[in-house]
Amino acid sequence: MHLIQVDSVQRWMEDLKLMTDCECMCILQSKPISIEKDEQNELILSSQYSTCDNLQLLLKRAWIISTELTRIAQKLEKNRWQRVHSMTVRVNCHVRSMMNEYNTFTRSSSELMHQLEKLLVDKCSEFTAFTERCLQTEDEEILKSMKSCVNETLTSVAQYFGQLIELVLTQEAQNLLRQIELSGSLYVTESAISSLFSLAQEGAHLCRIIAKEGGVVALFKICRQDCFRCLYPQTLRTLASVCCVEEGMHQLEKVDGILCLADILTDTSHSEATHAEAAAVIAQITSPHLTFTQHLSSFLENMEEIVTALVKLCQEASSGEVFLLASAALANITFFDTMACEILLQLNAVQILLAACSDKRIVDTPYSRDQVVTILANMSVLDQCASEIIQGNGVQLLMEMLFEKSCSGNPAEAAACERVQQKSAVTLARLSRDPEVADAAVKLSCIPRLIKLCRSPTERNNSDSVLVACLAALRRLAVMSPDGLEDSDFQQLVKPRLVDSFLLCTNMEESFV
């Protein structure tokens, strides 16, 4: 009997998705469970979830609606009217539910918000009515003429929905920032920063909203108050997220954010966690993938202090995560300005990084090795770097990095391993202009390994960038030590033009099909 009841309920729930009347559904959702309509019940309902949970619920509902609207457009294109109508009803329910949920946990809705809500609800009702009429006619000509109206209505629904979500998220960002700026309470500030961080994790668009509403200014204000020291790590982590967009970077420049980060990094009274999160912000704002870092003029003024603090953090790191953040910041800075490489040489950074690589507790992932070899590759353009590498047994490390392989099969880890192989080959090619480095590389059997990477696609995870780097390194070593190659290797991998050798090696993948 129990099984029959469960099956019946499940079946009813499935049918309900397609058969329910949206007006009834929304009325049911809007009704309070309790008969008594007092403020206490309202408080219990609204305090069950935190602001962060409510925002996540809102974003989840928004994602569902957005996905459904996309699917409706696809079904409409194929004239699947039955599906279009049932999905339209579902979107109608989701939109009303989203509004009910949002109005439950918010206490201040603007007049513009109410206007947009009404426009969206009216347009959703119109949309449902349109698709219902389409369902009731079988005349192809009438359906064809109605299709353009349905398309226009769908576009309007999507437009109003987008505007409403934008307004809701802007209002929530404003509320959180108001709490951060006005509250003197540690608990309230921490909660608001936590919610802001969650919001920033939802993507670049949310970060732009936060930055436009003054999020970077408010967060740096926290980082300049000693009474909030225990919140620095959390605040800096949020800043790193928000500064992934151009608006965040401009705000950072306006409030002298670089100077604040330099002060935090050089202040020995701060915890390692605070220093690590400050390093993460530096890594973010100096990322070579960003196209809008050129305006960071104040960075050059503080670069020596920042680089010195980051090298110290690498040297004293108590965990792999701290080392990764500090080394990532250093790696990005070496792309940002060549002067950084000279500062690193003066600070004995090569020896520090090579020593860290021998400690598997600190450099424990391909991601960390990727940062180290990036720094070495960028420093290898300096003539003085070769002797530092030799002294620290760096050629041996570069040789080991040519064997970097992913054990987990994780795509991100495999990509990191490819970068390690590529950059270690690049570093060897650059350093091998020094006869001492070339001689050490030959003695460590680098040539056979480079040949194998060129000839065996699986050894390099089918990466073309690794292949080009290995061919370049092999050619440099062949000049310094021509006896290390067999004639066939010389004829195929060294003597031809680089592009011809590249094509020969890439065609090897098709030889055993």
From TrEMBL:
The family database entries (SMART domains) matched by this protein are listed as: ARM (SM00185)
- The Protein inscuteable homologue LGN-binding domain extends over 4-48
Name the source's superkingdom. Eukaryota
Q: Which GO terms describe its biological process?
A: apical protein localization; asymmetric cell division; establishment of mitotic spindle orientation; regulation of asymmetric cell division
Q: Which InterPro entries match?
A: ARM-like (IPR011989), ARM-type_fold (IPR016024), Armadillo (IPR000225), Insc_C (IPR045789), INSC_LBD (IPR031938), INSC_LBD_sf (IPR038205), Inscuteable (IPR039921)
**Gene3D superfamilies, sorted:** Inscuteable LGN-binding domain, Leucine-rich Repeat Variant
Any Gene Ontology CC annotation: apical cortex
One molecular function GO term is: cytoskeletal anchor activity
The residues covered by the Protein inscuteable homologue C-terminal domain are 61-513
Coiled-coil intervals in this record? none
The record's PANTHER family line, in alphabetical order, gives: INSCUTEABLE (PTHR21386), PROTEIN INSCUTEABLE HOMOLOG (PTHR21386:SF0)
Please state what the protein is called: INSC protein
Q: Which organism is it from?
A: Hylia prasina
